[in-house]
Amino acid sequence: MNVIIAGAGRLGIQIAQVLAAAHNEVTLIDADDDRVAELEGVPVRLVAGDACEPTLLEHAGALTADLVIATTGDDEDNLVISLLAKRQFSVARVAARVNDADNAWLFDGRWGVDIAVPAATPLVSLIEEATGATDTVALLRLSKAGVDVIETAITPQSRTAGVALGNVRLPQGTVVATIVRDGQPTVPDPALLLRPGDEVLLVSHNATEQEIHAAFQ
User: Fold this and answer.
1) 169-182 b/e (C-beta count within 10 Å ≥ 16 → b)
2) 91: which of 85, 115, 137, 213 fits an S-S bond (Cβ 3.0–4.6 Å)?
3) What is the SS3 assignment for 180?
4) What is the pTM (predicted TM-score) of this model?
5) How many CB atoms are located within 10 Å of the residue 124 CB?
């Protein structure tokens, strides 16, 4: 995947390193020449310049980018970058960081934003949501109870799409806690037909993410 990240602050660098380690082609942009110079040695392509400028984005590879992530500390810049990425360069997936919660209402499709990410969102969650690369993830470990809370998302490609929940063979020691459908939790009735867009939350004593993935995907 070809990824452009605008903003070489701590968050931008962390995302760049994680995605590069996963063998993605990553370009990191920052307007501060000195900041870019400091990052020599980071295993990504570095570009100095203002990502709000269309020519700079094109130079960075926006015409062939699969994903653009705007992580600057300025909401106005993040919105401009998102709009350019989506409208001028037709980037399929655009994620933008929301620094000020009062501005969150602006971060939607009108500004080219597919995924609005609050500043407090954990790094891993941001990457998983922005890339769409992970359909199954461990959300929480309850140490005292000795269980994991694991989420898996049903997509049109999932083999359990259209299958009754009761017909899904779950790993031993695993139960479905709820199905989140259209943003609302749903009682996990065995007769419920799973459909694309459903998020299944499971509690398990010993199942791994890979086993949950195998059961649903």
Assistant:
1) ebbeebebeebbbe
2) 85
3) strand
4) 0.63
5) 12
